Amino acid sequence: MKLKPVIPFEPVKADEMPVGNQWTAQVKWDGVRILTYFDGDIAALYNRKLNNRTLQFPEFAEIKRYCSAASVVLDGEVIALEKGKPSFHNVMKRDGVRQPDKVLRAMRETPVVYMIFDILFYNGGWVTGSPLEQRQEILHDVIIPSDHVQLVENFDDPQSLYKVVSAQDLEGIVCKDLTSTYGIKGKDRRWQKLKNYHDLIAVVGGVTFRGDIVNALLLGLYDREGRLWYIGHAGTGKLNMTEWRALTERIKPLVVKERHFVNKPERIKTAVWLQPVITVKVKFIEWTGGQTLRQPSIQAFVEIPPEKCRLER
User: For the whole model, what pTM was predicted?
Assistant: First the structure.
């Protein structure tokens, strides 16, 4: 593949809707960010960390089935649905496949949809310098929608869209300036995300057990000095019993005598301390006054370096 993968443009967090006719709003899909690169010969998929994901999502490597461009770079989100709603836990099952002989089974058990929202390269040239409105026009010309490939829809009324998203318990919305160019490796207010709920990637610094099986995770984040702060424990969420058992086996070589948290966690008497190497995505309602998470819920384990999990407060 001749096209070199790039780090995609990211939205910034916002608390209020932007004002102006140049803004459009889209549903924020809770999935895996995937860019598809097609140089006219070979198609390959990469995530935002520049890791190849063609093995994990081979249905989108057959690009001629859904895109008529001679060469192209597409930006979007791969999602897995559960009862009609995006499930980050399920899409991470697909993203976590590493053995080629398990791909076909994963495709049958966890079908995915590619929600495409931008185009960076088209028929031999970069279009990142063109306004978003023009890039979207190109997308409508070249993308062939199907049950597994969709274009993300624009909405003119962000407030109304946010109300619908909240009522459906979806992740949130992204407001985009239709006049904006695409900032490779960028992150600024030309794209703004408003979340219906909060989420973060936390470090697992300890666990508790019920019998012989892990039943809760003790979570932490690093400060600027590299100290790990306990932010709460989570025992609810998307993990089934098979996954709890697998985690129980996984942590055995990670057990240590001393805790890595600088502050005292709850359940300290029953906790088993771990080397802080496992990271997990957690959904929660808000931060409490004691700087812990209110009602944290486990979504999925992720491959994020622990040192990247930092306190923003």
Answer: 0.81
